[in-house]
Every structure is written in structure tokens, then in C-alpha cells.
């Protein structure tokens, strides 16, 4: 039996996006795909990427996915393609309930147009869960990058640090863009 904090990831993802960028709740109505369509610009994003956030998109899933792969594999339902009208920030917030058995860890990375959004020399990215045995734990991480105008593909991926089974349950990916 797994312990789980059940919540609506669609709502949670939108609330996380609003909190991260002070997105007004009336900025734009969402369609079934989580697209907000036209919306008002929000205040400048903090950090060095600059620019205003004008759109939010999200994907979510509540099924359990597992892997034992020690190389990154795509996380089911966590891919989006989006268009930006001009150069500016693209922010990705990935949240999931993660599980790793004793001696294991779940690593997560996000690709933007096939390249890692947060490269580091070890080839790893963000530890989402490590060695807790029985319990699923909710985790979130934010990636940000300045992108040129055009079409961009975002894909979340995960791996098992040592080849044992690891899992993700309820998960969401929010994309904030110019």
C-alpha cells in the first residue's frame, strides 16, 4: 500500500504557475489542453532571463509510471510543443509524487528542443526522490531559459540511479512563456 497526497494536478499546476510568476487569476481562460490563449502580461520574471510571462500551458497525468532504466527515458504524458512570438523567458515547472526503494533515487531532467535545460558535468540533473523505501513524496523543480521566437518542444525525462524500480505518480508540467 502506498501513501499518497491526492490532489488535482491540473489545478495544482495552475496554482504553482500563478504563485511562481504572480500570474493574475483572470489572465485568461483555459481550454481542455491547459492553454490560456491571449492573456495580460505579468510582471518581469526574476533572475537573469528577464521578460514578461504572457501564457501558461500545462500537462498532467495521475497514473503511476515506473522505470529501472539507468539512462533517461521519456516520462509519459510530459511533453509539449509551444510557440513563442518573440525572444523571452520559457519556464518549466515539473511536479510529481516520486518513489524510490532503499538504495535508489529518481533523477529528472527537462529537455528543450532536445537539449538539457539544466546541464551539469555529471550528466545528472535533479534528484526527485532518494532511498525512502515505502512512501511517495511530492516534489517540484523549476527550469528556466531564454529562448528565441519560434516552435519549442519540451520533454520531461527520468531515470533510476542504480537500476532498481523507481516511480512517479500524479505529475504535472507547467510551461510559462512569453
TrEMBL record:
Region annotated Disordered, chain positions: 30-49
Database matches in PROSITE patterns: PROKAR_LIPOPROTEIN (PS51257)
UniProt keywords, alphabetically: Signal
Signal peptide range: 1-27
Full protein name: Uncharacterized protein
Organism of this sequence: Microbaculum marinum
Amino acid at each position: 500500500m502506498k501513501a499518497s497526497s491526492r490532489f488535482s494536478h491540473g489545478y495544482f499546476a495552475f496554482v504553482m504557475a500563478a504563485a511562481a510568476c504572480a500570474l493574475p487569476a483572470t489572465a485568461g481562460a483555459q481550454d481542455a489542453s491547459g492553454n490560456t490563449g491571449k492573456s495580460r502580461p505579468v510582471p518581469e520574471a526574476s533572475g537573469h532571463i528577464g521578460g514578461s510571462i504572457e501564457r501558461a500551458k500545462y500537462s498532467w497525468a495521475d497514473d503511476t509510471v515506473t522505470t529501472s532504466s539507468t539512462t533517461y527515458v521519456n516520462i509519459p504524458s510530459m511533453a509539449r510543443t509551444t510557440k513563442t512570438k518573440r525572444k523571452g523567458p520559457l519556464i518549466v515547472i515539473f511536479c510529481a509524487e516520486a518513489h524510490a526503494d532503499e538504495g535508489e533515487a529518481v533523477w529528472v531532467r527537462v529537455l528543450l528542443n532536445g537539449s538539457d535545460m539544466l546541464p551539469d558535468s555529471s550528466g545528472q540533473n535533479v534528484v526527485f526522490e532518494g532511498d525512502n523505501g515505502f512512501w511517495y513524496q511530492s516534489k517540484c523543480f523549476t527550469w528556466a531559459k531564454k529562448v528565441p521566437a519560434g516552435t519549442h518542444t519540451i520533454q520531461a525525462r527520468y531515470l533510476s540511479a542504480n537500476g532498481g524500480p523507481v516511480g512517479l505518480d500524479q505529475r504535472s508540467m507547467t510551461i510559462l512563456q512569453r
